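Hi C.,

You asked whether I'd gotten around to modeling the 444-residue construct. I have! Everything is below, sequence then structure, no commentary in between.
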Amino acid sequence: MAKDTCASLNNITIYQVYVRNHGPNGTFADVLADLDRIQSMGVDVVYFMPIHPIGQLNKKGSLGCPYSIRDFRAVNPEYGSEADFKALVEAIHARGMKVMIDVVYNHTAHDARYIDEHPDWYNVDAAGKPFTTVPVWSDIIDLKHPNEELWEYLVGSLVHWVQFGVDGFRCDVASLVPMDFWLRARAACAAVNPHTMWLAESVHLNFVRERRRDGLRAVSDSEVYQAFDMCYDYDIWPVFGAAVAGTMPLTRYIEMLQLQDSIYPGNFIKMRCVENHDQVRIQQLAGNPHAALAWTALAAFNRGPFFIYAGQESAARHTPSLFDVDKVAWGTYELQETLTRMAALKQEPALTNGKLTFLAAEPAIQAAWENGADSLYGVFNPRGATGAAAVQLPDGEYPDLLNGGSAAVRGGKLALPAAACILRAALAQPLREFVSPLMHSEIH
């Protein structure tokens, strides 16, 4: 392999693919034809939204949602055959990348194969009818956890895909499934491939709170790390969204990043994305290309895997529908080179061996990876501030890894970039960390 993507999950780049809308035919073969381009971006893991047959009973849209699954051990014939998917997995491996698939073990489609075979696997209402505890998800019905027979089947399904060649799982609404199940599943998969990757779609804090208030299961991010390597950034997503939209100070977002450093296990890994299939595209949310680029560069610079949703490299503004044919508008791939540079940053010695420190939030976010002569200093300008900002760098010229060329520090100040810059610098002295009132301690 070109690089060991399991050596440090903090430093990988994950690329999300929705097969239906990725290429002209919506097939595995379309993705196969695009692999060389994806690899050229520095992608480590190709993550596929669910590849399984989609339910048609009570479906949403014309084709149904990929998260409404009929059979956990089959592939969606809309995308191709199992042999087609096997060829795609092997081609990804041949290019030094790994494969992650979505698994959805909180629920199934209304017409899943298990309804008649195993009715006791489902939650039912007073009338004995399967239902979901999230009514807006009208195209699915909830599995009943815990259930020994169900768990044996689900764990066996995961082992099946690991034996097939899949390297990891993105687990949909993992917070709604007992951690005891995920621990069992992890152990079983590790017996086949000890480097199996586990990404939890942990849920928004308000969702956790509301479910707990209603007496329903909802696992916090701290608990998720018992079984998972990585989880989503949804704990602070509302703050991120408000900061991007300009309705919340940048300071508050940096506070939330520092809070994560304080409340999770020391080796926690948060996947850093600025968009995905459930969220508005960053180009639309940020309102202008420079702000979108600033936030994307910060995500790449931050601690944690860098996540790219297919279409970001074309500055897409439209999030494709989950329920219909709604192709990615590829255009000219105008941001592909920039995203490639961002992915390359994840392998810089500063990010693999250094210490991340946030230095300032206004008028632009400043952060540095301290690693002696191999340090990196980032300035991110999502508000489009103009002029110069004081920086913690000696006067001089510094190579700019994001934009090419160099940037000058004069009189302790740097001209603010239109979007962002990432400078290579030798940092001999410790930097002054930005400390918000939220994190301030009176203990001396």
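If it helps when you're writing up: Residues 1-6 have pLDDT under 50 and may be disordered.

Thanks,
B.
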